[in-house]
Structure formats: C-alpha cells, structure tokens
C-alpha cells in the first residue's frame, strides 16, 4: 500500500460479540500492517428485538480491543452516520471497505455511501460480503441487499455460492472469492485435551462441540437427534458452547424428550476470546449441522485448533473441508447421516492424522492475504 493510500474500514469491533466483529478486527490489524487505516466502528449495534439473546456486548473481553478505533456509528442514528462520514472524509481514503451481512444495516450503509460518494468521489468502495442476504430472511431482503450492494466497485466473498448469488443479483461485476482466513490461535495458549476437559468440568470421554450462537438455521436439533440415535456406540458427550437466541427451556425439554440430558452440556452464554481455545482443546470433533449457510468462521477456527469438523452440504461449508481428511460432509437435516459420521470418526478414523491435516489446512489462509486481495481488487477498479 502506498503511503498516501489510506483505507477506511467500516464495521463492528470491540466491545460487540459475534464472528463479524472478530473478522473485522482481524482484518483491520492485517490492513494496518500494510499502511494507514481508519477503523470506523460502532458505539451501538443491534436493538433487542433483533438480538434475542442477552446483551450484544462483551466489554470485559478485551482481546479485540483496538485503542485507535473510532466508535461513532449507531444503526438508528442519522447524526452518528453524519459524524462517521465526516471522519472518513477528513482522512480522504483511497479505498473504503465495508463488511456486509444483514439488511438491517441497509439504511446506515446507504446514507454513508451517499455522503461518501460526494465527499470522497475518488475512493473505491469494496464490499466484503459475508451473506448477500441474511439467514432466514424473506424475498424483500434480496431487493434491499441489491439496492445497497450495487453501489460498490468491487466485491469480496468467502463462499463461491455467495459469488454466484452476487452475479445473479448484480450481473457481470468483479466478484473475487477468497477463502476465510484462519484465526491466529498461536496467540492463545491451549491446554491439552484432558486438562481442558477438567477445566470445564467435563468427563474425559469422546467429546463433540457445537460452537457459536444457537439459531434456528444452525440445525442443533438435528445434532441432538443424531446423538439420541447413537446410543452407546460409542458413548460421547456434546458441549453446546454459545448463546441461545430465545429461550433455553425448549432446548432443555427436547433433551429430556430424547433422553440425552446427561450427555449434553448447554453452555448458554457468549464464549469470550480468552476461553475459546479451552473449548476446542476439550473437543474431538466440531459439528456444524447447519440447515442452511453461506460460510462459517467456525470451520476455520476448528481447523486452526487442529480439530476435524463434521459439516452439512450447504453453502460454502463443504468448500472448507476435505472429506475423510480434515472432516466429514453429510446432507443437511439428516440425523442418521450425522450419527453414522460421528460413529465412523470415533470407531474407524485415524483421529491424530485428521487433527494434523486440519491444522495444516490453515497454514496458507491468512489475514495478510485477504488484506492484499482487498487492496488489489480495489485498485483494479480504477
């Protein structure tokens, strides 16, 4: 990046929860290594009606804290939009990078773009598209997303299925696929498997991990049904480590109905960054039984920790898995197929070889590469 090429990055960061905040912060750090970056982030995120978990903040977890980030934006405050646009215009960036994942952000993004196109007419707008339209959204969301995304100059995706959707939506535009980077787990000191289980008060038996927010599209009920089918061959436990969107009572009732309450730990809370490594260290296999998906950072997170994954054939999930080497791929919404893959992993697979392959698979997918790709795509629009 040339000395004069300032990049403005607009997106969530500390103190907010979630994969997008983590992703945006790691991207900021990679861009910062290449040149001057202005990080315009949020002082407010979701209203309660859109975030039915607990609080959307985790201020005590300062792993993602960046002192130079300007926390000025709020999704429902036009005054905050104006302040954010003014701060960006003062920096006169050559490139403006905007993560996109949910149409809730359309009004703020449209307003920012309208102001920035006037105040920074030479800046290149790059959308980093996590989800063209959000999970579980209706057809109208497609039209809203198109209204926003057509204002970009270049688009980066982590899923080939998202590239196809963008081309369907916008026509022949420059969309570039870049694999989701691996998370820098070398910064986290992970205990060995038995120690991690002891720290989490888990039995030292074969362990499955479902990690992240519990939302309907993620298919947790399919995994629970698979666990009930597994019976005792082999006996294993499941840790659900993530905040439940909504009430926990229906999940507890389902566990009781399936007769697996003693095998499942519902850790109904956001897992802060400094605890993540312990949960992955305790697991043997990380399961993503999603009914629908674009991609998921959980696959890269699992592989970064040397843990194989079991994913469903939806969205970009199969793209990140080498079947039988770094994990397993099964049809979505199929408890029997999940059960068979779990049984195969614990009874016939070379688990140590799969763990080594999972870790090796992340060695070339780094944040610097993503940052350079974004800059290259932005410059190529000139």
Please give the structural blueprint.
Layout (H helix, E strand, L loop, with lengths): L6 E4 L8 H16 L2 E6 L27 E4 L4 H14 L3 E6 L5 H14 L4 E6 L9 H11 L4 E4 L2 H11 L4 E3 L15 H7 L7 E5 L8 H11 L6 E5 L7 H10 L5 E4 L5 H10 L2 E4 L8 H8 L4 E4 L14 E4 L4 H13 L3 H10 L6 H13 L3
Helix pairs in contact: 1-13, 2-3, 6-9, 7-8, 7-11
Give structural attributes.
382 residues, alpha/beta, Rossmann fold, 2 domains, 7-stranded parallel β-sheet, 6-stranded parallel β-sheet
Residues in helix, %: 25-40%
The strand count comes to 13
Please give the order of strands in the largest beta sheet.
3-2-1-4-5-6-7
The named CATH superfamily of the largest domain = Glycogen Phosphorylase B
What CATH architecture of the largest domain would you give? 3-Layer(aba) Sandwich
Order of helices and strands: EHEEHEHEHEHEHEHEHEHEHEEHHH
CATH hierarchy, class of the largest domain = Alpha Beta
General description of the model:
This protein is 39% helix and 15% strand. It is of the alpha/beta class and 382 residues long. The protein is built from 13 helices and 13 strands.
């Amino acid at each position: 990046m040339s000395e004069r090429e300032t990049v403005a990055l607009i997106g969530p960061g500390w103190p907010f929860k979630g994969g997008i905040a983590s992703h945006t912060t790691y991207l900021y750090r990679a861009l910062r290594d290449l040149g001057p970056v202005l990080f315009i982030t949020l002082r407010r995120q979701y209203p309660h009606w859109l975030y039915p978990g607990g609080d959307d903040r985790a201020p005590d977890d300062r792993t993602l804290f960046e002192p130079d980030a300007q926390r000025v934006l709020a999704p429902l405050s036009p005054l905050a939009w104006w302040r954010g646009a003014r701060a960006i215009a003062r920096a006169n960036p050559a490139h403006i990078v905007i993560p996109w994942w949910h149409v809730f952000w359309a009004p703020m993004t449209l307003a920012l773009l309208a102001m920035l196109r006037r105040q920074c007419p030479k800046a290149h707008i790059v959308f980093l598209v996590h989800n063209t339209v959000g999970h579980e959204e209706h057809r109208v969301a497609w039209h809203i997303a198109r209204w926003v995304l057509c204002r970009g100059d270049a688009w980066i995706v982590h899923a080939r299925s998202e590239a196809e959707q963008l081309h369907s939506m916008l026509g022949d535009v420059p969309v570039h696929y870049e694999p989701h980077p691996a998370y820098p787990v070398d910064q986290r000191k992970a205990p060995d498997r038995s120690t991690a289980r002891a720290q989490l008060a888990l039995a030292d038996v074969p362990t499955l991990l479902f990690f992240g927010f519990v939302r309907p599209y993620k298919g947790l009920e399919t995994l629970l049904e698979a666990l009930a089918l597994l019976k005792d061959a082999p006996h294993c436990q499941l840790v659900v480590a993530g905040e439940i969107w909504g009430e926990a009572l229906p999940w507890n009732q389902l566990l009781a109905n399936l007769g697996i309450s003693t095998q499942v730990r519902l850790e109904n809370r956001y897992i802060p960054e400094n605890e993540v490594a312990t949960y992955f260290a305790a697991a043997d296999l990380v399961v993503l039984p999603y009914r629908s998906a674009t991609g998921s950072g959980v696959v890269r997170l699992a592989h970064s920790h040397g843990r194989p994954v079991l994913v469903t054939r939806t969205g970009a999930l199969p793209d990140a898995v080498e079947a039988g080497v770094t994990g397993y791929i099964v049809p979505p919404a199929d408890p029997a197929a999940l059960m068979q893959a779990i049984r195969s992993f614990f009874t016939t697979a070379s688990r140590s070889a799969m763990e080594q392959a999972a870790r090796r698979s992340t060695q070339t997918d780094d944040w610097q590469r993503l940052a350079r790709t974004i800059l290259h795509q932005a410059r190529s629009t000139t």
